[in-house]
Design brief:
alpha+beta
Length: 70
């Protein structure tokens, strides 16, 4: 299974591999050249990485949309 997200200047792809999950982050322009970083994570590492991304996204959302003062 492959999931890909294209956001213009970057893309993120996750695919199942025998050892776990392969993540590829492609940047269209980093210092004038395209760059792709790939990492293979086992299942426990992939779960920990996903939890960290969710936590970072939640933190960013709270900072972007603070609660109104009461």
């Amino acid at each position: 299974m492959t999931k890909s997200t294209d956001r213009g200047g970057w893309s993120l792809q996750a695919s199942a591999v025998p050892d776990g999950v392969r993540l590829e982050l492609a940047l269209a322009d980093l210092g004038g050249s395209p760059v792709t970083a790939a990492i293979v994570l086992d299942r426990s590492e992939a779960r920990a990485f996903a939890r960290a991304l969710l936590a970072a996204a939640g933190d960013a959302a709270e900072r972007t949309f603070p609660k109104p003062g009461t």
